[in-house]
Specification:
With about 525 residues, the chain is an alpha+beta fold. It folds into three domains: about 270 residues, BirA Bifunctional Protein, domain 2, CATH 3.30.930; about 110 residues, Herpes Virus-1; about 120 residues, Rossmann fold (3-Layer(aba) Sandwich). It contains 18 helices and 23 strands. The strands form seven sheets. The protein has a seven-stranded mixed beta sheet. Strands 20-19-21-22-23 form a five-stranded mixed beta sheet, with helices on both faces. Strands 5-4-6 form a three-stranded antiparallel beta sheet. It is globular and about 75 Å long.
Length: about 525
């Protein structure tokens, strides 16, 4: 099964089992907008809890806020979004499709990387145990040629993006011989800039209404509340402010399911530090955030850092944590050293003094900021992508299973009475009553026990509790583990402690301290 086929199956599975639905589907949907179903909202909330608890509960110097989506329009002038929040777009004249020029080039670079890896894998099979990968990469003419193409395109693209040279971006696309994936032609327009912010009107009558924007990021709500939080919370630098919230971008190229959407959710933390100490904290947060991801257990090889060559206008260092999706390594989280740009800009545009008085040094200054920003929807897709598996079982049977980490699973336990009589449903209900205050628990009595196991595997339930006639005699049940399908007999009274130990959020958080 190819990665493309796997991704299509994952999308279909997400809808079939109540994770993600196309928005407004009865009206044929709305492009790049999705609704989270009954399983999806549970997984999403669990991801939020894991992030929130790791960032705020485990730390005395990070607190949270929930800023409004609507903000004074001057906010976005100060942040630079009104004048500079643009994407370079290019159209194909034959297909009439519009693309981001940088994305076209990044996808072409990714294809060159894939070709290099295929060359390496072919050589590995050819030479067997004697294969020296490092030597092959450094001596293979084919690999050298592909690497040279990749480096040249990437270098030219970074230079063009940094200088805003739109004509050069188009020329790189032409020189790289990139074709439109729809029409298959190279009939490209010029590249032009497109602002990504949604605007709307606020006011009781149209004539007196003012233009405001749907926020394109959540960070500015933190910056404009810096002094409010610092003073009311008596916060001392270094300290952080965390927030989870919706953001909106008028993405022209919105695709790859929920990876790039027009309405999305961010989990961001802005960490305020003394000027000159930002690189220390930048490296600290890179390490911690990578550890947060790897603690989920999908394998260290699934993650990598990508240091930015093209820096945003506000940053002096930036890196992405990338995850290996079915469509390649893509950004899930960004860590940025934003200098003092944001607070200084708001100080200038508002006319209000936004500074911190440092009692240790006796001086006032505008703090520098290190940001961690993770896309919740991308994190959701990452977990589904890593968890989805199709397995062949003994006897010719098969199953689809979501190996979602137990603390994040939408349903932690399914309680299944073997039959719908003889008091077994009542015992099952009593077990649910003992668990439901701490965990999302599901009751299922329909179909054979095997079919019920398969349904729970498909939504990622880590534990199934089967109540049988022996349960009525000795107060024991069978617990089945999702991943190994191992079954064991346990006392009903031991179920809560077992589930808390293996499926509670604490099992993840303890690994971070």
């Amino acid at each position: 099964m190819t990665q493309e086929e796997l991704f299509k199956k994952l999308i279909a599975h997400s809808k079939e089992y109540g994770f993600i639905f196309p928005s407004s589907e009865i009206y044929d949907g709305l492009s790049a907008v999705y609704d989270y179903g009954q399983m999806g909202v549970e997984l999403k909330n669990n991801i939020k809890a894991y992030w929130w608890e790791a960032m705020t509960r485990l730390r005395e110097n990070i607190v949270g806020i929930d800023a409004a989506i609507f903000m004074h329009p001057r906010t976005w002038e100060a942040s630079g979004h009104v004048g500079a929040f643009n994407d370079p777009l290019i159209d194909n004249k034959d297909s009439k499709k519009r693309y981001r020029a940088d994305v076209l080039l990044e996808e072409h670079i990714a294809k060159l990387e894939d070709k290099i890896e295929k060359e390496v894998e072919k050589a590995r099979k050819r030479f067997g145990d004697s294969f020296d990968e490092a030597q092959y990469r450094s001596t293979s003419p084919k690999v050298a040629e592909l690497q040279s193409q990749k480096d040249s395109i990437n270098s030219r693209m970074v230079t063009a993006l940094n200088s805003g040279d739109l004509a050069e971006l188009r020329q790189i696309i032409v020189d790289a011989d990139i074709v439109d994936p729809v029409s298959g032609t190279r009939n490209w327009t010029d590249v032009r800039q497109f602002n990504l912010m949604f605007d709307t009107r606020i006011g009781s009558v149209a004539e007196g209404a003012n233009t405001i924007y749907l926020r394109p990021e959540t960070a500015q709500g933190i910056f404009v509340n810096f002094l409010n939080v610092q003073k009311t919370g008596r916060m001392k630098i270094p300290f952080g402010i965390a927030q989870i919230g919706k953001a909106f971008r008028n993405e022209i190229v919105a695709r790859q399911f929920i990876f790039r959407m027009r309405e999305f959710e961010q989990m961001e933390m802005q960490f305020f530090v003394r000027p000159g100490e930002e690189m220390h904290w930048y490296e600290y947060w890179k390490e911690f955030r990578m550890r947060w991801h790897r603690t989920l257990g999908f394998g260290d090889a699934m993650y990598r850092f990508h240091d930015h060559e093209k820096l945003a206008h506000y940053a002096n260092a930036a890196a992405d944590i990338e995850f290996r999706f079915p469509f390649g390594f893509k950004e899930v989280e960004g860590i940025h050293s934003r200098t003092d740009f944001d607070l200084s800009q708001h100080q200038t545009f508002s006319g209000r003094k936004i500074q911190y008085f440092d009692p240790e040094s006796g001086e006032s200054y505008v703090p520098f900021v290190v940001e961690t920003s993770i896309g919740l929807d991308r994190m959701f897709l990452q977990i589904l992508s890593a968890a989805y598996a199709e397995e062949s079982l003994d006897g010719g049977d098969s199953r689809v299973v979501l190996r979602i980490p137990a603390p994040l699973a939408p349903v932690k336990v399914a309680v299944l009475p073997l039959v719908k009589k003889d008091g077994l449903p009542e015992i099952a209900r009593s077990i649910i009553d003992s668990l439901k205050f701490d965990h999302n628990v599901q009751y299922d009595e329909k179909d054979s026990i095997g079919k019920r196991y398969r349904r729970q595997d498909a939504i990622g339930t880590p534990f199934c509790v089967t109540v049988d006639h022996q349960s009525a005699e000795d107060c024991t049940v069978t617990i089945r583990r999702r991943d190994s399908m191992e079954q064991m007999r346990v006392a009903i009274s031991d179920i809560p402690s077992l589930i808390n130990k293996e499926a509670g959020l604490r099992t993840l958080l303890e690994k971070l301290v």
